[in-house]
Amino acid sequence: MKIAVVTDSTSYIPKNLRDKLNIHMIPLSVIFGNETYKEEVDITASEFYKEVKLKGLPTTSQPPVGQFVELFNKLSEDYDAVISIHLSSGISGTYQGAVTASGMTNGIEVFPFDSEISCMAQGFYVLEAAEMAAAGKSIQDIMARLEEIKKSVRAYFMVDDLSHLQRGGRLSSAQALIGSLLQVKPLLHFVDKMIAPFEKIRTSKKAMKRIVDLLEEDVKSGEPYRAVIIHANREEGAKEWAADLEARFPNVEFMISYFGPVIGTHLGEGSLGLCWMKK
């Protein structure tokens, strides 16, 4: 059986890697006034942060169901099945769009998967599925592995300004107000598919140390792990952090990724996160 792997743009997998692993991507969009940009297609992350300084924060939009139907129908010409992996259904309707489209597609079986997370943590699932599909693994084996990954994936991130999350309805007003008044740097994570506070910490430095402590607790067994540092226009800081962590955790394979336009709209510039999973 020939299996196609589809994801959305919020997995932020670089195009060269998508091309290499034959990953198909559906873009979400950011809207500045009357101008709509498909992320990873019409606008890059670096361009986005420049636009925000000039125009303020945009709104975001999930892909129309018709775009999924069109892609799935096209894939039916060359594939027997599709695994479609998307950002958490708790923060976007994108996954539900894939589910709806799967019932409107002929000639190919579609298996939508809710990663219950986003960004390169979501990308971990996509990369694993693409590698397994290329190796000729079955739908059942790939879907079982995706469920297994959920048991070991951890993702923690901090934001410079809670107001973006509050404005987008991803964090309550009370939590945003308390955070800004006390100048707290809350550690955030995903709980039940939604973004939620993990701990409230006074400074960015202490927050980063706390994330590293959590990583250390998980990887101390010496088993191989894959990890990613994710940044919102903080590339140099991300590189420095990666160099420090690589020296400290030899059993962990580190990479660097970014919060692109759609997720960056809700987290804000300066955000930083660390995600990991057991290989």
TrEMBL record:
Pfam families: DegV (PF02645)
NCBIfam families reported for this sequence: DegV
Organism of origin: Cytobacillus dafuensis (Bacillus dafuensis)
Family matches, as PROSITE patterns: DEGV
One example GO MF annotation: lipid binding
InterPro entries reported in the protein's UniProt record: DegV, DegV_C, DegV_domain_contain
Stated name of the protein: DegV family protein
Keywords annotated in UniProt: Lipid-binding
